[in-house]
Amino acid sequence: MPPRHSLPEALLTTLSTTRGRSDRLTHTEHLPARPARYAPWPEWIRPEIAASAQAMGVRQPWAHQAEAMNLAKSGQSVVIATGTASGKSLGYLGPVLSDLLDGTEARNGRGATALYLAPTKALAADQRRRAAELAPPRVRAALYDGDTPPEEREWVRQYASYVLTNPDMLHRGILPAHARWSSFLKTLRYVVVDECHGYRGVFGSHVAQVLRRLRRICARYGSSPVFLLASATTADPAATALRLTGLPAEAVTDDASPRGPMVFGLWEPPLTENVGEHGAPVRRTATAEAAHLLTDLVERETRTVVFVRSRRAAELVALQTQDQLPRPLADRVAAYRGGYLADERRALERELQSGRLLGLASTSALELGVDISGLDAVLMAGYPGTRASLWQQAGRAGREAQGALAVLIARDDPLDTYLVHHPEALFATPVEATVLDPDNPHVLAPHLCAAAAELPLTDQDLELFGPSAAPLLPVLERRGLLRRRGDAWYWTRRERAADAVDLRGSGGSPVQIVEAPTGRLLGTVDASAAHTTVHTGAVHLHRGRTYLVQDFDVEGSVALVEPADPPYTTAARDITSISVLTTDTTVDWGEGRLSFGSVEVVNQVVGYLRKRISTGEIMGESKLDLPPRTLRTRAVWWSVTEDQLLDADIPPDQLPGAAHAAEHASIGLLPLFATCDRWDIGGVSVPLHPDTGLPTVFVYDGHPGGAGFAERGFQRAVQWLTATREAIAVCECERGCPSCVQSPKCGNGNDPLDKAAAVRLLDVLLAGAPPAAAGTGLDGAAGPSGPSGAGGQAAPTHTADPVEAAQAAAEAADGAEAAARTAEQEAKQEQEAKREADQRADGPTGGGSPGAS
Q1: Which pairing describes strands 592-612 and 568-589: parallel, antiparallel, or unpaired?
Q2: Cβ distance 449 to 809 under 8 Å?
Q3: Are 846 and 679 in contact, with CB atoms under 8 Å apart?
Q4: pTM of the model
Q5: Distance CA 225, CA 206 (A)
Q6: Are the C-beta atoms of residues 442 and 704 closer than 8 Å to each other?
Q7: CB within 8 A of 143, min separation 6: which ones?
């Protein structure tokens, strides 16, 4: 039986009025329908393309699609920043496929080519299908990713006119072998960068440098492609496109697509009878609440996707929902996440598109554009980190213009609690700008080495790579990575320079997860997340089965697991120390000070908690002995004086708890002001820090060299810390709880924490702050209905030591050499598993713990 569509108001009423849930819905927002606005097909669009689109039901393009098509045809780079299901694909496929059809008339049948980049393999496969539906077979579209068999790769290089890949393959497979791609690159007309709002932070900064390397190689072969970018609604998309590609781009932001009415609910799970650390009240987890709501929706045959924040959560939601449903319906619920083998991903995508699946628990791997129509509801188990991602996820429902339901279920943390009680922060606040920093020397240095290995670097190339390039080159030479001959710089090592670049900032080679009794490869996890997710004793979930980690071999990058059925999950504990390397900027806040600069962070995972699955109750703690890890990054910090502490009535015995609580809450609220996740940042609070001589709270980027998040916090400190103070003050708990000042990753066991003193500490700090900017002070453009202002983003500044960045590049090159020695062994393991477990092209996991709090 096909799934039934239900009115979103009726669905939300049913969910909120049954099973004693009447007090959980904190706000309901009704978003009205929007009619379509059409435009005629541009005259230059090939008739075959227009006819195919019309056969698919597209009689005319929407106005923003036609605008993008005409800009692209004129040779202008374009960024289409409109809502989910607004037809961005047709906006770029129209000119791309028309020009490729023209190119088929050349003698070799490939007079024009185009390159498509997607952050995930699933999205690239979906886009290949769309291209095949619109263009005749003589436009040869082909995938080129980690799943492409070696025998097919040569065919793609020689004959494909539309190559669909991801930044990882462009970086590792195409640019280092550009001579083999010369015929493709000579005629490269367009480069499509899909879902470009996802290229943020360190990953976005790396992709920006990869695109600059691509432009340099194209110039070598005489081509200058037009860049066509597709983005969710973000602030100042033209500025983001400029920083990503290095080229000016025209922004198309007036969304002319139709939209059905949407009902958007904000939902807070109830308090349970259990208590957490130090007797704090504990709410039901967002994943458990999502499983209950998904159960009700599937029982009503309502097609629903639940978006969760981690791979483990995706498995848990699917497993708990299946347990609560009778057998026929239970089989129509599944999990979808990165780290699955290729065959498993493809099968799930087919079942979702066919409608066989009624409920799916997914990480953000499914957020990015895979075409699934006919969904009735989207549940979000936790705020996804940015308003852009929130609307991207919510927009997956109602993709056939029918009414849709979206529900944001708050996690038990400060940001989610703040949002469900401050709906204006979501519905009346502009979408943020995307933060990326391609000039970060830690990002740039290895890309200069990769570029020199592709073609010798000259002084003319330096402008392309930005102002940080020139100071880095002589340092890279002293480190033995580059050598100057005449007027050019050359790569000196035998190993491939591209292998030394950790494109997704994952901290090294992925850790393989191997089933000990059978030797079967289950999947992989990023090296940066391994210490916190696959340590000895950790619970690991895969395809609904539970495993316990028997042994984590840090040096061998292997975690051995065995099947198990424990009644708990695990959460790692870590400790952190921090020292100031350089202070770039200091602003006086009355007697207090706000600073921004470079720091060194030493982090060590020291143990883990066991938490009961059903309630989150802490069952026990175990110690671990893992090596410390050192990180040099960027941070924002604030200090207060002894006189200010006296004014705030904070005696010495209350100061550690006050600073610690303020640190936790400020980490939780920073994602509201910077496009980051709380797991992208870390923090440390010190009652008397040796480098400042004062009580100091630090919040730092969890990536080498920084990612721009701490700098955004420095720029928006008044609004950020004001919201932090309010989130603590309005929480209904007495002494502190996960909704305000407790942190799930605190290495000190959330002790000490002093909620009341933290409010007084922030009061005395903010009393000396300069006046906030007019309005909300948030960057951006409007929420779901599209941009309403330019917003904008300041370019991050850098005073990072180029010697330090070059040292990191040299260490990465040494690591690449070691990795090359094990490549053959890894390839054999992958062959035995039938397919690569290439999670890198499935997007960042957001795992890992960059900080102690």
Answers
A1: antiparallel
A2: yes
A3: yes
A4: 0.77
A5: 20
A6: yes
A7: 121, 124, 125, 128, 156, 164, 165
